Amino acid sequence: MGGKPPGAILTDQDKAMKSTIAEVFPNSRHRFCLWHILMKLPQKLGQVIKENEDFMEIFDKCIYNSWTCEEFEKRWWDMIERFELQDNEWLASLFEDHAYWIPTYMRDTFFAGMSTTQRSKSINSFFDKYVNKKTTLKEFVRQYCVALQDRQEQEAHADFRTWYTLPPFKSPSPFERKIHALAVFHSLGIFDIPSHYILERWTKHVKTIYDSTTKQTRKEVQYRKQRFDELFQEATKLSKEGSMSSESFEIAYLGLKETLKKCAVVNQSLKSSKEPQCRHDGDGNVNCNTHQITVLDPQVSKTKKSS
């Protein structure tokens, strides 16, 4: 291993192996196979399990749902007291070595998601299909090559399925088919879909939007959206270039601040020019010069009284 001790070791529950690993690899994290421990439950606590239907549920919560060491110890001793297991030697030995198999105590060490020795066991079962205790040395070498060839073919098939097939989706939602795009948004720090990407005809308020009276016509809204899209694309390019160095960032930042001020001034002046200029005529009517045609009420005239 390049002269370095292993960072983590996963073995069966064995006292001799425990002491040997602690002596040879003092800096390695040793862990017992959780599967082998749980497999002994029917043998060691069969009567308790039979007489108490809720024992396994409480035991599993103690093992898997304890997020802190204090929480585990409290649940453990509550379980021991509830089912009167103070004299059980096997449980006492398990608690003595609890730091070697309880998941809560292993969170500071990377085990690649493994809590059992099943991976090594699967390799053993794999070679059991090719060799046995009566296999000669010559036959072993030949069968070993056959086993490796089969393994390589399995990996080739797995690679093919990875590249040229799609896993079945768990839901019919069209968003799930584009989940990779949402993952890109997350990596860029975008947690909300920009509003300009959501077409108004997709929303449930589409009727309200187009029925409401607004100062902008639909064509004006469309033109504004086009301008927004073009500016957004250029701003993205500017962000990439401006972030390459501190000098380019300073230029881009100051330029944006100055451009933003100019745009605000222009928009404010346009807004002021569009405000109606009103004047009073001699008849008491108010006339406003706007960009829209305003229909005024007709002047009231006195009619002749009927005789």
Automatic annotation (TrEMBL):
Keywords, alphabetical: Metal-binding, Nucleus, Zinc, Zinc-finger
Family to which the UniProt record says this protein belongs: Belongs to the FHY3/FAR1 family.
UniProt-recorded name of the protein: Protein FAR1-RELATED SEQUENCE
GO CC field: nucleus
The keyword Nucleus is annotated on this UniProt entry: yes
Domain MULE transposase: 2-40
Pfam families: MULE
GO molecular function: zinc ion binding
GO annotation terms (biological process): regulation of DNA-templated transcription
UniProt cross-references to InterPro entries, sorted A to Z: FHY3/FAR1, MULE_transposase_dom
Subcellular location: Nucleus
Annotated function: Putative transcription activator involved in regulating light control of development.
